[in-house]
Amino acid sequence: MHIHEAVLSGSPAGLAVLGAGIVATVVGTAIGLRRLHDEQLPRVAVVTAAFFVVSLIHVPLGITSAHLVLNGLVGLLLGWVAFPSLLVALLLQALLFGHGGLLALGINTLTMALPAVICYYVCGSWVAGLPRGRAIAAAFLAGALGVLGGAVLTAGALWIAGEEFTLLARAVVAFHLVLAVVEGLVTGSVVLFIRQVRPELFALALHAPAYR
Amino acid sequence: MLMERVDPRTRIAAAVVFSGVIAAAQQPATAGIALLAAAAATPCTRLTSRQVLKRLLPVNVFALLLIVALSWADHVSPIAARHPEASDHTGLGLALMITAKANAIVLWVVVFLGTMDLITLGHALRHLHVPDKLTHLLLFTVRYLDVLHGEYLRLRTSMKLRGFQPRLSTHTYRTLGYLVGMLLVRSLDRSERILAAMKCRGFRGRFYLLDHFTFSRRDLGFLLVACAVLCLLAIGEAS
């Protein structure tokens, strides 16, 4: 869910939301960049590019369809580095497709990356360490939490910007409640796959890479 | 004047300033002027009208949603009833204003940055003192976009050959999950190989900037035109 700065800039409260988003994203990105080793750059870039490509995948959802977000998965893989990663991905989406605007990058990155970081802290160690069944449950939680957290933050931004957006904010949350289940299922199966094929990937956020 | 010849740093700065000014506008006249001026400026890029319209599509889909939602909200509890002092404000009016502003902003960003290739963008961002790691991440990501998209299309084709049809089922979601997992695993392996190859060639975690941008007379002309448009917007806002 991308908001455009034109939506938020109509009221002083909306402008404050835009500003707060920029500040929070700068802080989060600074923390993420500090934790990012030069040697991890190619890996993080791959995850960033994957996030971008995954947004092109449309999943059927009853009569309609939605594209995958998977910011929870990005959080599980990258931790705080999700901030710079999602910032770059959203910048590319803004420039190439016209999703969201340049000034709204702050609030849009915040709404995507903050739930991702929370997923990392809440579910990260469970996904990597617990036995299979419970790990998949944790991954489902991360996928659902990521997209739902994003929707709630977006709705909150709209709600603060003006009471006339209340209905829209509710619609955003309602739609993402359904999408959260799909995201959870897909994230669960991605995690299942990665655990079987390349379990060390979950250590991406925790350790420097093997090359020294 | 073709936009490609203007200094990329100036173009980025102009895109940000124009976004801010138009977003801050409160008068419909300003939004109208910004939209018209942006439409008039699009020939400066060499994009076809089809390409431009495609960039405008997402923001207008959202605008449609906004128009419906705000008109409905207005219908349920009119803004004028709650705020008598703003009696000329209607949900529909607000939605149309937002739509005009959003279109104007997207158009101006397309005019300024639409034809800038992403490598130049990364380069210019470094000159604008964006942190090294962030611009490196951008450049690496741009490098991998095509690779991953190609990989995705290949995997998608092979799924189709095996008779996969997306439906509303757990099987679909599981399969898509495996697709994403496979995409990640293969691409990460490739990235490790690329890193090793780059290290063999002496990569030490930074790119060196070889060419530097120069601010020329042409850029001054560009700035003057941009300032003139901004003045026009200021007049619209004051009227």
Overview of the structural elements:
The complex is a heterodimer of chains A (212) and B (239). Chain A has helices at residues 5-8, 12-35, 41-54, 71-78, 82-97, 105-129, 132-161, 166-197, and strands spanning 58-61, 64-67. Chain A has 212 residues and is mainly alpha-helical. Chain A has a single domain, classed as Arp2/3 complex 21 kDa subunit ARPC3. Chain A is globular and about 50 Å long. Chain B is an all-alpha fold and 239 residues long. Chain B has helices spanning 8-24, 28-41, 49-76, 79-82, 91-113, 118-127, 132-161, 170-200, 217-238. In chain B, α1 (8-24) runs antiparallel to α5. The radius of gyration of chain B is 23 Å and the shape is flat. The chains are: A mainly alpha (212), B mainly alpha (239). At the A-B interface, α1, α2, α3, β1 and α5 of A face α1, α3, α5, α7 and α8 of B.
What's the number of domains of chain B?
2
- What pair of chains forms the biggest interface? A-B, 75 and 86 residues
Rg for CA atoms of chain A:
17 Å
Please give the share of residues in helix of chain B: over 70%
CATH domain class name of chain A: Mainly Alpha
Strand order of the largest sheet of chain A: 1-2
If classified by CATH, what would the architecture of chain A be? Orthogonal Bundle
Report the β-strand fraction of chain A as a percent range: under 5%
Work out the number of β strands of chain B.
0
- Low-confidence sequence ranges of chain B: none
The percent range for helix content of chain A is over 70%
This entry's quaternary arrangement is: heterodimer
Q: Low-confidence segments of chain A, ≥5 residues, pLDDT <50? A: 206-212
Strand content of chain B: under 5%
List SSEs of chain A in N-to-C order.
HHHEEHHHHH
Tell me about the largest β-sheet of chain B. Answer: none
Radius of gyration of chain B: 23 Å
Q: In sequence order, what are the helices and strands of chain B, one letter per element?
A: HHHHHHHHH
- Global mean pLDDT of chain A: 87
Overall tally of structural domains of chain A: 1
